[in-house]
Amino acid sequence: MTLENVLWITLSAILALALAWFSYFYKSGKTPYQWLLASLRFLGLLSAFLLLAPLQFEKVSVNMEPHRLMLVLDNSVSAGRNASRPALEQIRDFFQKDPDLPGRFDLQMYTFGSGVRESDTLDFSEKRTDIAGTLKTLSNASLNGNASVVLVTDGIQNQGKGWLPSGPGSISVFPIVIGDTTAYRDIRIDGLNCNRYAFLDNQYPLEILISYRGEEATTALLTLFDNGRKVHSEQIRLGAGRASQRLSVLMSAGQVGFHTLTAEVAPLENERNTRNNRQAAGIEVIDEKTRVTIVADRSHPDIGALTRSIESNEQRQVTLIKSRDVPSRADETDLWIFFQPEPGFRNAYATLKDGNKPLLTLAGGLTNWNFLNEAQQSFRLEGPGPREELLPELNPTFSYFDARDWAVSSYPPISGFLGEYQILQPHENLLGQRVRGISLNQPLMTLIKGSERREVVIFGDGLWKWRMQSFTQDGDFQKFDALFSKLWLFLGAGKANERLNLDYENVFDGQQAAVIRAQFFDEALRFDPSARLTLHLKDSTGTLLDSYPMAVSKREYQADISSLSPGAYSFEVAVEDANIRKSGQFRIQDFDLENQQVRSDPEALLSIAQASGGALYYPSQLEQLKDSLMGADRFRPVSRSQRNVVSLIDFRWLLALIVAALGAEWIIRKYNGLY
């Protein structure tokens, strides 16, 4: 109690005593019950004065909080196998029926698969397992740290990232490994990657990711099929232990249409799990020649280098013209390249405004920047500085496509201007500028996703040097030409005059939801959320199966087709009342994610246990786990005290005391005829 509180109480007591003495002893003579009435008057007045005084006291409440023990049960398909199901149900029953655990812990039960929910019902219907996401969710819900997890699972995770505890007060995890932990020889195809489209009569790369687990090195036969027709086979060799191999095979696009590509590796002798020996992907072969027009008013080696790079793909055709001839080529061009724009390009830019064709601008050391800043609204160079030799620097965060294999660190410099570059449209920089080893934080090559067209801008000339350097390093021009092919694909993929755009996978493999997405734009090329889009679905024979109205969600239309059976399908998206249609093909793969691995993974669960301060157990060690939980001091109930500063006005009994004391005084006085 503070000195201020003592002074207030003393002053209140003196004042109440003085008033009671004055009322019953100073003015009054001897009356019945004089001392009782004076005492009641003193008690009532003292309580009233204390309520009026600014007195505060600390109120302490103490609670015993039991340790929170969360039993988390794997409800996935893999946990429901014959080797796992009985053990998992036995563990659940042990915790439910044990007489000691509920009295010591706040026992809660959860099931999980792709997500976690509070339940003790197991139906083993979850088609994905996200151990990391489950532990993160439970950890976030137990911020005070007075909680532990008993995780009953086979350790097979096929969704989410790894999880490790972080920060003080993190939960402890005690995994119980169920299922078969025996290590078997297993060879599997982890991935089959290819482009979504290929041009007729061209070659395209197919990437196969293969892994092997076994004590001895092995060989296996890899076979590739195109629409069921065998097109390639080779023997592969994999080392002992956990070995992996990445193979790349050039495939020929020999027939227009949708192609189902299948990679199959022959099973090993006595291999237990052969479900993961096969994977499929899809690619659509199209017959479409891209007409590229290079506009240049002067000769330069870059023009020849670009022409040869573009025409390395037979589906692209290059025409070289002067800027004055641009209007006559407008209807015969799919992609423009403006080389070193000068005032003579004025009519070229005027023609460009009337269409939506993609554009690559090469603005190097001979570019007239005063004219270029005025002629277009996509980028600017403020106050051009001196010409300089600019070295390329790859942007590691570039995301429009994968350019990590493009080794530009050894490329020679190209010629451009120093200065402050401004990109006025949504964009990402593929290359930055570097001068004498110093990064200038300025773009050297930028890709623009504009509202009217897609653009690529290269702020320098001398690309022929880069193409020659690619040949010096690799003995061919493939890496340079492959990167620029991605630029042409980027430009061609954004034709802004197409009002209906579709987004879907050629093969839905069961690892993600099967959804067809579409965007529809009005005549001003603004997203139209009020249109009516319908998906017409057909099977492999062309028979109409059903029609789905597409729902609007987050500036796109969607139709969920996850309920379809495995097989090949075609579809058409029609915009009602607009006579606009687009079609496509896809395949639903019979892919069981939970059966890609049959062996439990105690190693991964052990690392989680050790990192979180827990321990790994097996179903036969339930009593040891119980003894460990019951005997550890860190799992004892925690005494938590809460201190609150309260005013006397919060004590209701004090108000009752005032009413009782003054009321009793009044009744006694009235009963004895006193006024």
Describe this structure in words.
There is one protein chain. By secondary structure, the protein is α/β, with parallel strands linked by helices. The chain has 14 helices and 35 strands. The protein is extended and about 130 Å long.
Radius of gyration: 39 Å
Q: What is the helical fraction, as a range of percent?
A: 10-25%
Largest β sheet strand count, sense and barrel closure = 9 strands, mixed
Structural class: alpha/beta
General form = extended
Low-confidence stretches: none
Binned strand content: 35-45%
| Multimerization state | single chain
- Number-wise, the strands total 35
Strand order of the largest sheet: 16-15-17-18-25-24-23-20-21
Mean pLDDT: 84
Termini distance? 40 Å
How is the secondary structure organized here?
Blueprint: H1 3-26, H2 34-52, E1 56-65, E2 67-74, H3 85-97, H4 101-104, E3 105-112, E4 116-118, H5 131-140, E5 147-153, E6 172-177, E7 186-193, E8 197-199, E9 203-214, E10 218-226, E11 229-238, E12 241-252, E13 257-265, E14 278-286, E15 290-295, H6 301-310, E16 316-321, H7 326-329, E17 335-339, H8 346-353, E18 359-362, H9 369-375, E19 379-382, E20 387-394, E21 414-417, E22 420-423, E23 427-435, E24 438-449, E25 454-458, H10 463-474, H11 478-492, E26 500-503, E27 507-508, E28 515-520, E29 533-539, E30 544-549, E31 551-552, E32 557-560, E33 567-575, E34 580-588, H12 602-612, H13 622-631, E35 638-647, H14 652-671
Parallel strand pairs: 2-3, 2-5, 5-6, 8-14, 15-16, 15-17, 17-18, 18-25, 27-34
Antiparallel strand pairs: 1-35, 3-4, 7-9, 9-12, 10-11, 10-13, 13-14, 19-22, 20-21, 20-23, 23-24, 24-25, 26-28, 28-32, 29-30, 29-33, 31-32, 33-34
